[in-house]
């Protein structure tokens, strides 16, 4: 153990997509961070499969969309298919909205890609220190910092780190959450699942009808990479320790398949469904699966975690760089915990819908229908159509000013529309700034970054506003785009760094101190210069 503690502004625990994205976001803000991961390398398993449009907007801000898209499947894989066996015809199918084809509400399109293909891109997106094979084993909070003890599994040595904040993105079995004694609510453990990664030539059944996921009566099959590779997901059998996994997958393919897969890796894991009772414990914050674990059907879990750190990192940067008060970090839990509950409900609903398909299919076959009969799905246009949840989240916290310029009560919850499938773009405070093209190839969302953005058709009218010490850029709205926020000729939108509208003035600034007061209120600064 070293005599002196190493010091860092933010200690990130866990090198999954959430922790890696937090590392990249904090580096963009100029905040020093150290990321530790108890495993010796990035996970070799596919895990999450879907990067939705909101996550791709975040990656667009980081300059990563081109590489992520190049490594992902073509858009035609943005579909799910239901079959009796992999080699049978579809009896039902549904498109993934925002993946299969572009949507007008966003400048980007989501992709189907395996997590083990995404993570190396995120790892290379920042240069902040990384320590693989290093596990956080102890935490002690103090008034101005957190002291952490780290165990290096390579040589058994321990070291201490002193951090202003700890961001725990260490998964559903979070060590940090356990050390803090934070409980969870929700169904909890749903079942044990096995993932088998294998190679086999299956293109004769799938090449002409591509999909990101194939649900069958014998487990779920998913293509892993554009160049090849497959994964099979199913409940863990009782004889798992002695299983012949090549034979298990061969039988799951169906009696007529006559394929002997080459098994590469096998992973056993627990599917969980919960939301942490607290997302914050002093200077320690939970994100991603550490804060909320949701069933995998619908592809919501990882994307919710990415939205967590997009919400959190600018707030940590503001406090650490001195232009925000500590209470700004309070708004993280206020804004994101209700979204986690809604996400969990949506994921459970997706799981129930998938089960309904299988139940209807069994009824069909028992009634003597042939295997070629298709199953009509009245909900198929709504399955995976989750833009209301993905893009329609409305935050309600002290970091958002109401229409009259006042902050709402901090206890007022954030909540996406109850119908997660419906999205109506709006620039009301708390909502994500709607996408509009400012010029060819440049979206309103591209005006955002490591600063607050003031969108206005009258930039000269706002020049006299005091804005120090907050980072702010003024973006002129071209003729015809004032309608993005129902603004008059002198109105303006104040947009937070995470893309959510912090304040709105339809008719111009009420006073010369309007903008500074709004920034002070939004960031929790004690005074205008705070």
Can you give keywords for this protein?
530 residues, eight-stranded mixed sheet, 11 helices, 24 strands, alpha+beta, globular
Describe the SSE topology.
Blueprint: E1 6-13, H1 17-28, E2 33-37, E3 50-51, H2 53-61, H3 65-71, E4 79-82, E5 92-95, E6 111-112, H4 115-123, E7 130-132, E8 134-141, E9 146-152, E10 158-168, H5 175-180, E11 184-199, H6 203-206, E12 213-216, E13 219-225, E14 228-235, H7 245-253, E15 262-276, E16 280-281, E17 284-286, E18 292-293, H8 301-321, H9 330-366, H10 387-390, E19 437-439, E20 442-443, E21 452-456, E22 472-476, E23 492-495, E24 501-505, H11 514-523
Parallel strand pairs: 1-2, 1-10, 2-7, 4-12, 10-17, 21-22
Antiparallel strand pairs: 3-6, 4-5, 8-9, 9-10, 11-14, 11-15, 12-13, 13-14, 15-18, 16-17, 19-20, 21-23, 23-24
Helix pairs in contact: 1-4, 1-8, 8-9
Task: Give an overview in words.
The protein is an alpha+beta fold. Helix content is 24%, strand content 25%. The protein is built from eleven helices and 24 strands. The strands form five sheets. Strands 1, 2, 7, 8, 9, 10, 16 and 17 form an eight-stranded mixed beta sheet that branches. β23 and β24 form a beta hairpin. α1 (17-28) packs parallel to α4 (115-123). The longest helix has 37 residues, at 330-366. The chain is globular and about 75 Å long.
Short description:
The protein has 530 residues and is of the alpha+beta class. The protein contains eleven helices and 24 strands. 24% of the residues lie in helices and 25% in strands.
**Overall pLDDT confidence:** 89
Percent in helix? 10-25%
Radius of gyration, in Å, reads 24 Å
User: How many strands, what sense, and barrel or not for the largest sheet?
Assistant: 8 strands, mixed
Q: Termini distance?
A: 39 Å
Number of strands: 24
Low-confidence stretches: 409-413
Strand % is 25-35%
Instruction: Describe the global form.
Output: globular
Secondary-structure content class: alpha+beta
Number of helices: 11
């Amino acid at each position: 153990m070293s005599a002196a503690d190493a010091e860092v502004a933010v200690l990130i625990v866990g090198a999954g997509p959430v922790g890696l994205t937090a590392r990249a976001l904090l580096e963009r803000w100029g905040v020093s961070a150290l990321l530790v991961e108890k495993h010796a390398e990035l996970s070799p398993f596919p895990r999450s499969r879907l990067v939705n449009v909101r996550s791709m907007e975040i990656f667009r801000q980081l300059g990563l969309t081109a590489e992520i898209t190049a490594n992902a499947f073509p858009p035609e894989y943005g579909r799910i298919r239901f079959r009796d066996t992999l080699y049978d015809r579809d009896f039902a199918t549904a498109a993934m909205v925002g993946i299969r084809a572009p949507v007008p509400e966003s400048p980007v399109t989501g992709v189907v890609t395996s997590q083990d293909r995404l993570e190396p891109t995120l790892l290379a997106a920042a240069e902040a220190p990384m320590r693989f094979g290093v596990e956080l084993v102890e935490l002690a909070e103090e008034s101005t910092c957190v002291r952490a003890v780290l165990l290096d599994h390579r040589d058994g040595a321990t070291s201490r780190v002193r951090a202003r904040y700890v961001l725990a993105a260490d998964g559903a079995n979070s060590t940090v959450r356990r050390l803090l004694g934070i409980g969870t609510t929700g169904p909890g453990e749903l079942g044990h699942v096995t993932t088998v990664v294998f190679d086999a030539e299956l293109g004769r059944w799938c090449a002409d009808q591509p999909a990101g996921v194939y649900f069958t009566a014998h487990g779920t099959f998913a293509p892993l990479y554009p160049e090849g590779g497959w994964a099979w997901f199913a409940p863990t059998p009782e004889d798992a320790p002695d299983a012949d996994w090549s034979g298990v997958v061969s039988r799951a393919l169906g009696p007529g398949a006559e394929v002997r897969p080459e098994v590469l890796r096998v992973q056993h894991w627990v599917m969980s469904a919960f939301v942490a009772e607290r997302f914050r414990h002093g200077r320690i914050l939970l994100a991603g699966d550490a804060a909320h674990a949701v069933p995998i059907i619908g592809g919501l879990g990882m994307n919710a975690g990415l939205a967590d750190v997009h919400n959190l990192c600018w707030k940590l940067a503001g406090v650490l760089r001195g232009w925000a008060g500590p209470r700004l970090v309070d708004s993280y839990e206020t804004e994101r915990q209700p979204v986690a509950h809604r996400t969990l409900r949506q994921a459970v609903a997706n799981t129930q819908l998938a089960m309904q398909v299988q139940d209807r299919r069994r009824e069909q076959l028992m009634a003597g229908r042939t295997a070629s009969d298709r199953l009509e799905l009245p909900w198929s246009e709504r399955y995976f159509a989750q833009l209301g949840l993905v893009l329609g989240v409305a935050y309600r916290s002290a970091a958002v000013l109401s229409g009259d310029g006042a902050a709402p009560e901090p206890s007022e919850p954030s909540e996406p529309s109850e119908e997660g499938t419906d999205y109506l773009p709006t620039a009301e405070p708390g909502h994500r700034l709607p996408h509009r093209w400012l010029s060819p190839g440049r979206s309103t969302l591209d005006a955002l970054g490591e600063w607050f953005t003031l969108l206005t058709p009258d930039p000269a009218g706002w020049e006299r506003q005091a804005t120090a010490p907050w980072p702010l850029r003024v973006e002129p709205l071209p003729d015809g785009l004032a309608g993005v926020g129902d603004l008059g000729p002198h109105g303006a939108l104040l947009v937070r760094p995470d893309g959510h509208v912090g304040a709105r003035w339809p008719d111009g600034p009420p006073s010369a101190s309007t903008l500074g007061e709004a920034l002070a209120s939004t960031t929790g600064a004690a005074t205008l210069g705070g």
